[in-house]
Every structure is written in structure tokens, then in C-alpha cells.
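About this split. The held-out portion is used to measure sequence recovery: a designer receives only the C-alpha cells and must propose an amino acid at every position. Recovery is the fraction of positions where the proposal matches the reference. Here is one held-out target exactly as it appears in the evaluation file.
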């Protein structure tokens, strides 16, 4: 198990997005990975973040398990 070097209070959708982009870039460079068929399997907030990333990057497939697509609406309602 790995441990984050960041602080929980500094976590945001933008920082999560940047982290995911870094992970994708790293994985795509691995010699045993076919970077043309990347598949993300994610849940909850990771689902929302992955949708943001997939809108910018070529992601072959998304497997969304109960994605928190309600985050923008909840934020507008003040449920943050």
C-alpha cells in the first residue's frame, strides 16, 4: 500500500485530476502496457475525476462504479 505525500485539506477535484493525469502518463510509458487501450475502473469521486480526464485524454474505456457525478450540483447547493 502506498501513502500520499499530500495533505487531505489540499485535496480538490483539480489536484485529483492532476494526480490522475500523472498516473496515466506514467503507466502509458511502461513497456508492457498498450497505451492505446487504457481502461480506468473507478468509484465515487474517482468516477467524477476520471470523467473530467476522459474529456481531455484518449481513454479507451471507463468502468464507473457509483460515480459521484452529483459533485458539481452538490457544490452549487452548498453541500461541500
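Reference sequence for scoring:
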Amino acid at each position: 500500500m502506498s501513502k500520499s505525500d499530500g495533505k487531505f485539506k489540499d485535496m480538490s477535484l483539480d489536484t485529483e485530476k492532476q494526480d490522475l493525469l500523472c498516473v496515466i502518463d506514467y503507466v502509458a510509458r511502461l513497456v508492457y502496457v498498450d497505451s492505446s487501450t487504457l481502461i480506468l475502473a473507478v468509484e465515487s469521486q474517482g468516477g467524477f475525476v476520471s470523467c473530467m480526464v476522459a474529456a481531455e485524454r484518449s481513454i479507451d474505456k471507463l468502468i464507473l462504479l457509483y460515480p459521484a457525478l452529483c459533485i458539481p450540483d452538490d457544490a452549487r447547493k452548498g453541500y461541500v
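Annotator remark: The chain has a mean pLDDT of 89.
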